[in-house]
Amino acid sequence: MTDLTVSTDLLRPTTAAPVAANRDKIKDTARAFEATFISQMLKPMFDGLSTDGLFGGGQAEETWRSFMLDEMAKTTVKAGGIGLSGPVMSEMLKMQEGRR
């Protein structure tokens, strides 16, 4: 499971430039959001997939599939993602600075 929580301190308007630690937390949150989005987009691709047969994983594969999708999504984000975390991070930074 990914943690998408952000401290309200990160989103409080300030006049000063964001502190590097807050910026890193926002970046991590934006990437976690992108990973969750990708995981949810991959899920329908595997819903109708049969796990029976010679090389199927059976009930265990079906049970652990959500974890596999989460890891696939995290790996995709680490490799550059689909370009969602950048705009999400920008909007979060705007919220922090009190701009719209």
Task: Please provide a written account of the structure.
The chain is elongated. The protein has 100 residues and is mainly alpha-helical. α2 (20-47) runs antiparallel to α3 (58-78) and α2 packs antiparallel against α4 (85-97). The chain has helices at residues 8-11, 20-47, 58-78, 85-97.
Rounded mean pLDDT is: 82
Report the sheet-strand fraction: under 5%
What is the count of DSSP helices, taking H or I runs of 4+ residues?
4
Biggest β-sheet description = none
User: How many strand elements?
Assistant: 0
Q: What is the rounded Rg?
A: 18 Å
Defining key terms:
single chain, 4 helices
State the gist of this model.
With 100 residues, the chain is mainly α. 66% of the residues lie in helices and 0% in strands. The longest helix has 28 residues, at 20-47.
Question: How are the SSEs ordered, and which strands pair?
Answer:
Blueprint (H helix, E strand, L loop, with lengths): L7 H4 L8 H28 L10 H21 L6 H13 L3
Helix pairs in contact: 2-3, 2-4
